[in-house]
Amino acid sequence: MATFGNLTDRLTDAFKKLRGKGKLTPADVDGTVREIRRALLDADVALDVVKVFTASVRERALGDEVNKALNPAQQVVQIVNDELVTILGGKQRRLEFAKNPPTVIMLAGLQGAGKTTLAGKLAKWLVSEGHTPILVAADLQRPNAVTQLQVVGEQAGVPVWAPEPGNGIGNPVKVARDGVKEAQRRQYDTVIVDTAGRLGVDAELMKQASDIRKAVDPDEVLFVIDAMIGQDAVATAKAFQDGVDFTGVVLTKLDGDARGGAALSVASVTGRPIMFASTGEGLGDFEPFYPDRMASRILD
Ligand code: GDP
User: Fold this and answer.
1) Which residues line the pocket of ligand 1, CB cutoff 6 A?
2) What pTM did the predictor assign?
3) What is the distance in A from the centroid of ligand 1 to the CA of 125?
4) Residue 288 forms beta bridges with which residues?
5) Where is the SRP54-type proteins GTP-binding domain (predicted)?
6) What ipTM was estimated for this complex?
């Protein structure tokens, strides 16, 4: 994957040096751990996450955890793989559907993160899973956000609840609440609520998102984050966690060639799982996120 190409190369180089060694000395392990540490930091993985990661790799590589089927170099690769799975959230976490439909899924994130596109992707995927989603346009901040959601809804073949002129325009909380009521009335089983993005973390818009959260009581709040955001990822994620207490993360733009390590840190620093990944502009460029598959791709 382009986003992690450099990280993959660097880790592969670090492992290569261990090949052919019969037994690893503490110096071998320390040398490798140092290289892993540099590779992760250069990929923009957050420092706190790198520290825990490398300490754990070191401890396990020096410990007497022995898998006789693997040579020492393979054992280190296995340990790094396991630790990557751990920082990526461990097991895959699926969407939680409400016992009494509709299931309400709220989206939050910075402007340009890919929220509106994601609303369409998620809707299309839900349809393929046998669900009947409806989109709700509660992003009234950007002039063309409502139209953009309508276009995306049409592409995905799902209806969009949007404010009519005079019907709550300017009040995103009311639009969100009415959209959920409409879903109940027309018996859609999932409601995806798009909310306003912002350029930076903005107190007023965070309050708006928090008010929408209170009004629609969502089953899932997905924090959408652009994998290319770089070092700001962790601070942004923490601000959204304080503001809207999201239940899961969606990584977008994993097809880009920027360093994606910061986004990989988000699950670890917030304790919230990465649930979906978005890998392009098309509505089909979207998949559930599997920590173990991502770890294998990074180490491939
Ligand atoms: P929003 O402001 O969060 O609603 O973001 P948008 O959905 O409008 O997306 C911003 C831009 O990013 C658009 O040009 C999208 O086509 C693009 N985009 C969204 N997701 C992806 C992705 O996974 N990969 C790529 N390459 N572009 C994406």
Assistant:
1) 109, 111-117, 197, 252-253, 255-256, 278-281, 285
2) 0.93
3) 17
4) 276
5) 273-286
6) 0.98
